[in-house]
C-alpha cells in the first residue's frame, strides 16, 4: 500500500499492507518475513467496514457498499528495508 502517510514512515522502517480480512497478526508477520526476507518487530492491524454509497443513473438510484478491508502496519527491524519502489 502506497500512501503519503505510509511513504513518510518508510524511512523509519514502517510499511503498510492490505491483507486478507481473516489474517491474524502472527500470520501477517510470517508472510512478510518470508516474502521480503526481513525481521518484523511489530504488526498493527485495522479493520475498515463497508460504507454505503449511492450513485444516480439515468433511470434510477443505485445503492451499494464499498468493499470492507483490513490494513496491516508492519515495523521491520532497524537497518532493514523493503524495496517497494524498485519493482515499479
Automatic annotation (TrEMBL):
One of its GO terms (biological process) is translation. GO terms for molecular function: rRNA binding; structural constituent of ribosome. Transmembrane segments: none annotated. GO terms for cellular component: ribonucleoprotein complex; ribosome. InterPro entries: Nucleotide-bd_a/b_plait_sf (IPR012677), Ribosomal_uL23-like (IPR013025), Ribosomal_uL23/eL15/eS24_sf (IPR012678). The keyword DNA-binding does not apply. The keyword Lipid biosynthesis does not apply. Keywords: Ribonucleoprotein, Ribosomal protein, RNA-binding, rRNA-binding. One of the early assembly proteins it binds 23S rRNA. One of the proteins that surrounds the polypeptide exit tunnel on the outside of the ribosome. Forms the main docking site for trigger factor binding to the ribosome. Belongs to the universal ribosomal protein uL23 family. Part of the 50S ribosomal subunit. Contacts protein L29, and trigger factor when it is bound to the ribosome. This is Large ribosomal subunit protein uL23. The gene is rplW.
Amino acid at each position: 500500500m502506497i500512501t503519503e502517510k505510509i511513504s513518510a514512515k518508510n524511512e523509519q522502517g514502517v510499511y503498510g499492507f492490505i491483507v486478507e480480512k481473516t489474517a491474524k497478526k502472527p500470520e501477517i508477520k510470517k508472510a512478510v518475513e518470508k516474502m521480503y526476507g526481513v525481521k518484523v518487530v511489530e504488526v498493527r492491524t485495522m479493520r475498515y467496514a463497508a460504507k454505503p454509497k449511492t450513485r444516480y443513473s439515468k433511470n434510477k438510484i443505485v445503492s451499494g457498499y464499498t468493499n470492507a478491508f483490513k490494513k496491516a502496519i508492519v515495523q521491520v527491524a532497524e537497518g532493514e528495508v523493503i524495496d517497494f519502489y524498485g519493482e515499479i
